[in-house]
């Protein structure tokens, strides 16, 4: 195993590459306020982060990544456009795989603002492609914005669309919801009985029969949830044709030009995705201008749905195909919505990526050894 000093030297080389590409070096505190991360990710973040506290600062978390504090820094006083690079340790709890490190170094590059999102996406991807080119990695790309646009184009209620959007990063839950909304999955008997009771007696009577309040939710909250369930049950299912279109999109795994042609055919029946496809086409043109061979670049419509929860547009990763045991060497994407949340309503275009120098070092040594 490579020493920490060797990994740090590799990290400094990568950091220097991004500095020489015009990025301003920045650093963030290792201890981050827990309330911001909990607001973004909910209580789930506790399973992945190391939590501590003190009397003055309250609950804190060891830095799980750099993106959130860098966004906060930029939204407080950043210029437009702005390019940042950083290097340092991040910390992730590992409860299932003792072989995965709980502490490792990240080097990143973030680009805020600019007039063309497509050109910014291409710039970030091309930089990582260049610095990783000696390793012969496979690049995968996707577009969460395309999936969100497809969901928004469904002929169903705003509540159902919001549920699908919320779980687009949780494929199993998303599939279960889509199958239920599309009528593919029968309603469980227990829910049928509940809905029948709601229709006959109403939410207030059902709650009264259920007994006293227990837990954190008030009776009014539970009543509102029951009313929403009853209202949703009365809605017609999402059409089989629209479910099939969404399934078709999710299954796409082709080269970028073929994927775009395929998606243009889908857009004939699902017009809501047309603007996302225009952006995808512009991005491919910008990538080609950066010297990327888009004819060989892979596009996976479902890419990024399990590991990139705050990304809402272009996503990408670089992998060592001959080492399937390794995590991605680098990942990145667009996260405009995150800037809106952390900017308290103010938003700027933003795209960035991180690379793990210990993986770069290991693969470099394998290549020469």
Main pleated sheet: 9 strands, mixed
- State the low-pLDDT regions, or none: none
Supply Rg: 23 Å
Counting H and I runs of at least 4 residues, what is the number of helices?
Answer: 15
Structural class: alpha+beta
Widest sheet, order of strands? 1-5-6-12-11-10-7-9-8
Q: Beta-sheet strand percentage?
A: 15-25%
Arithmetic mean of pLDDT: 86
The secondary-structure element order is HEEHEEHEEHEHHHHHHHEHHEEEHEH
**First CA to last CA: what distance?**
14 Å
How many extended strands? 12
As a percent range, the share of helical residues equals 40-55%
Explain this structure:
The structure is a single chain. With 369 residues, the protein is α+β, with helices and mostly antiparallel strands. Helix content is 48%, strand content 17%. It is built from 15 helices and twelve strands. It has helices at residues 4-20, 34-41, 67-77, 117-132, 144-152, 158-166, 171-181, 189-201, 203-210, 219-233, 240-251, 256-267, 274-289, 336-342, 357-368, and strands at 24-25, 31-33, 51-54, 58-62, 82-91, 103-112, 138-143, 253-255, 298-300, 314-319, 330-334, 350-355. The strands form two sheets. A nine-stranded mixed beta sheet has the order 1-5-6-12-11-10-7-9-8, sandwiched between helices. 34% of the residues are buried. The model has no long low-confidence stretch (mean pLDDT 86).
From the structure above, extract its key features:
9-stranded mixed sheet, 369 residues
Please summarize what this structure is.
With 369 residues, the chain is an alpha+beta fold.
Could you give the topology of this structure?
Layout: H1 4-20, E1 24-25, E2 31-33, H2 34-41, E3 51-54, E4 58-62, H3 67-77, E5 82-91, E6 103-112, H4 117-132, E7 138-143, H5 144-152, H6 158-166, H7 171-181, H8 189-201, H9 203-210, H10 219-233, H11 240-251, E8 253-255, H12 256-267, H13 274-289, E9 298-300, E10 314-319, E11 330-334, H14 336-342, E12 350-355, H15 357-368
Parallel strand pairs: 1-5, 7-9
Antiparallel strand pairs: 2-4, 3-4, 5-6, 6-12, 7-10, 8-9, 10-11, 11-12
């Amino acid at each position: 195993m490579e020493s920490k000093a060797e990994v740090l030297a590799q990290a400094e080389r990568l950091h220097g590459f991004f500095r020489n590409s015009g990025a301003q070096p920045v650093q963030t505190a290792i201890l981050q306020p827990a309330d911001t991360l909990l607001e973004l990710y909910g209580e789930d973040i506790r399973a992945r982060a190391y939590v501590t506290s003190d009397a003055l600062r309250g609950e804190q978390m060891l830095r799980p990544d750099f993106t959130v504090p860098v966004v906060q820094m930029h939204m407080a006083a950043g210029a437009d456009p702005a390019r940042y690079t950083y290097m340092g340790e991040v910390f992730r709890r590992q409860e299932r795989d003792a072989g995965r490190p709980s502490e490792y170094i990240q080097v990143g590059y973030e680009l805020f603002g600019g007039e063309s999102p497509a050109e910014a996406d291409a710039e970030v991807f091309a930089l990582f492609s260049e610095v990783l080119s000696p390793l012969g990695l496979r690049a995968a790309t996707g577009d969460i914005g395309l999936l969100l646009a497809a969901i928004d184009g469904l002929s169903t209620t705003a509540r159902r669309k919001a549920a699908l959007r919320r779980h687009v990063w949780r494929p199993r839950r998303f599939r279960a919801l889509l199958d239920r909304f599309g009528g593919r999955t029968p309603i469980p008997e227990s829910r049928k009985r509940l809905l029948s009771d709601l229709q006959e007696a109403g939410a207030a009577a059902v709650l009264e029969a259920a007994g006293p309040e227990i837990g954190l939710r008030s009776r009014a909250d539970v009543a509102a949830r029951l009313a929403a369930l009853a209202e949703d049950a009365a809605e017609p299912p999402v059409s089989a044709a629209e479910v099939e279109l969404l399934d078709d999109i999710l299954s796409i795994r082709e080269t970028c030009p073929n994927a775009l042609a395929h998606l243009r055919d889908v857009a004939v029946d699902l017009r809501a995705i047309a603007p996302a496809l225009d952006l995808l086409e512009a991005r491919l043109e910008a990538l080609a201008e950066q010297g990327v061979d888009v004819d060989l670049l892979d596009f996976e419509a479902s890419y990024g749905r399990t590991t990139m929860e705050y990304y809402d547009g272009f996503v990408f990763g670089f992998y060592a195909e001959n080492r399937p045991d390794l995590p991605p060497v680098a990942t990145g994407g667009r996260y405009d919505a995150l800037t809106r949340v952390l900017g308290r309503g103010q938003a700027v275009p933003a795209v960035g990526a991180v690379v793990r120098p210990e993986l770069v070092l290991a693969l470099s040594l394998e290549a020469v050894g």
